[in-house]
Amino acid sequence: MDFSPSPRAADLAGRVGRFLAEEIDPAEAGYRAQLAEARRTGDPWQPLPVLAELQGKARGEGLWNLFLPRDHAGEYAAKYGTLGGEGLSNVDYAPLAELMGRSSIAPLVFNCNAPDTGNMEVLLRYGTQEQREAWLDPLLDGRIRSAFTMTEPGVASSDATNMAATAVLDGDQVVINGRKWWSTGVGHPDCRILVFMGLTDPDADRHHRHSMVLVPRDTPGCASSGWCRRWATTTSRSGTARCPSPTSGCRSGTSSPGRARRSRSRRGGWGRAGCTTACGSSAWPRWPSSTPRRRGLERTAFGKPLVNLGGNRERIAEARSPSSRPGCWCCTRPGSSTPAA
After folding, report:
1. Beta partners for 199?
2. pLDDT of 234-257, one tens digit each?
3. Using CA of residue 223, residue 226, residue 232, residue 238, what is the dihedral sign?
4. Residues 56-73: pLDDT tens digits?
5. Measured between alpha carbons, how far is 116 from 136 in angstroms, rounded to an integer?
6. Which residues have a Cβ under 8 Å from the Cβ of 134 and sit 6 or more positions away?
7. Among residues 265, 137, 258, 260, which one has the least CA distance to residue 195?
8. Which positions ≥6 away from 310 have C-beta within 8 Å?
9. pLDDT for the residue 35
10. What pLDDT, on the 0 to 100 scale, is given for residue 293?
11. Structure pTM?
């Protein structure tokens, strides 16, 4: 299979790379410092102004909602600022996700962050027009945020068929009972919608027992922001929290479209999102090797770049080798866990 990027994808990769180098990288240290201070003394959920400023610049350059899939983006890519006016294939989007993954805030800046991307794809592919207008449009526009509530305490939640929280039809409403765990984004002040995964048909086969239900954030009985503030120390690098989400007797009037689509909606929307999120995560193991290499080339000591001192040249050359395992070349031999001599 040919994994070469298309001309459009190569152009976007260049644009994203330049935006990272010129706009995001210089701002990231300050962002982290402000976030740390907010966690220590203020409201850790309040979005920082620098993020909105960067988002505005990215959107102005068409580097917005790049995650939208080519086969389903429709008019949304053109309407909400993706350069070129259409979505991208997995092959074309994967290198962009990897570039974004080198920064803790880049996915937020480009509106390509989890869990919003997966939730938006579920709405895009399986939502009704009414649901799209209510939730997809404002998510793509960056006006609101969302959360995905799947993980539960007491079960191996990596296997979604273990989910025990229930979502039972009662007339034109869905009654939700259970407790969700580590629900990314639920504490954000702009979070307005939860995508809840629950058991709806225990007698069906294990891959068709569950449904996804759209639960407005302000639904009585839904997770409260007070729970999330108690778990502020478990936030991720970008300040997007994963918090407990208790629900008891919560009633929602908006359900996922059709029992036959229950299993497919999880794979179709979050399957792609999970893969591309992993592409972003794959960039982080490269950081420990790429940063010291750059420092070795740029830093001068005793009248020479560090790369020219002692055995550093050989180490940097080895660290550049594709066969070497990412790691700190000043502490370990590339491809080995043993201390360097």
Report:
1. 166, 210
2. 334 344 434 444 455 566 654 443
3. positive
4. 999 999 999 999 999 889
5. 10
6. none
7. 265
8. none
9. 87
10. 64
11. 0.73
Which of 122, 100, 123 is CA-nearest to residue 111? 100
β-pair partners for 255: 213
Peptide bond just before 115 cis, omega within 30 deg:
yes
Lowest-confidence segment of 79-93, 182-196, 298-312 by average pLDDT = 298-312
Task: Quote the CA–CA distance of 225 and 188 in Å, as a whole number.
Answer: 8
3-state secondary structure the chain: CCCCCCHHHHHHHHHHHHHHHHHHHHHHHHHHHHHHHHHHHCCCCCCCHHHHHHHHHHHHCCECCCCCECCCCCCHHHHCCECCCCCECHHHHHHHHHHHCCCCCHHHHCCCCCCHHHHHHHHHHHCCHHHHHHHHHHHHCCCCEEEEECCCCCCCCCCHHHCCCEEEEECCEEEEEEEEEEEECCCCCCEEEEEEEEECCCCCCCCCCEEEEEEECCCCCCCCHHHHHHCHHHCCCCCCCEEEEEEEEEEECEECCCHHHHHHHHHHHHHHHHHHHHHHHCCHHHHHHHHHHHHHHHCEECCEEHHHCCCHHHHHHHHHCCCCCCCCCCCECCCCCCECC
Q: What's the token pair of residue 286?
A: 């490269």
Tokens representing 113 are: 């962050």
Distance in Å from the first CA to the final CA of the chain: 42
The encoded tokens of residue 335 equal 């491809």
Q: At what angle do helices 7-19 and 90-100 cross, to 10 degrees?
A: 10
